[in-house]
Design goal:
single chain; alpha+beta; 8-stranded antiparallel beta barrel
Length: 138
């Protein structure tokens, strides 16, 4: 009986380690649309080409610092407005392949967890890839 329990525990630990692989920025490449907001998205082309569109304005993200060892992960960056540079701290969780929960803290300290008392929380969906002409004709 003890041997069976040990094997079950070992399988559980192995499966947990396998599925809890740390994320990478490369896992996030694509266009993420912010739910409920028109003309609002986060587009990650690669580590140096990241754009945030909000209220119809597209801004380039620079000085990106991502820490996937944190849970939720830290996703901090700088963006430039017409008059100033804005430092943004944020929290992010990736759910599966297609959903992000993202909380932005502008001009305030980041909370260690998601909270309704600070910042703004957004839910983003990864936009489905565009269909090619050959795929749509079949």
């Amino acid at each position: 009986m003890k041997k069976c329990v040990f094997i079950i525990v070992a399988i559980f630990i192995f499966a947990s380690a396998l599925f809890a692989q740390p994320r990478k920025l490369q896992d996030m490449i694509g266009r993420w649309e912010i739910g409920g907001e028109e003309n609002a998205s986060l587009e990650i082309i690669d580590s140096s080409h990241i754009f945030l569109t909000y209220m119809g304005e597209t801004k380039r993200i620079s000085n990106l610092k991502v820490d996937f060892t944190k849970n939720p992960c830290w996703f901090d960056f700088t963006t430039t407005d017409s008059a100033s540079t804005i430092q943004v701290k944020s929290l992010m969780v990736i759910y599966g392949e297609g959903t992000l929960k993202w909380q932005l803290f502008i001009d305030e300290e980041r909370s260690p967890y998601f909270t309704a008392s600070k910042g703004e929380i957004f839910y983003l969906k990864k936009r489905a890839p565009a269909m090619t002409a050959t795929a749509s004709s079949n």
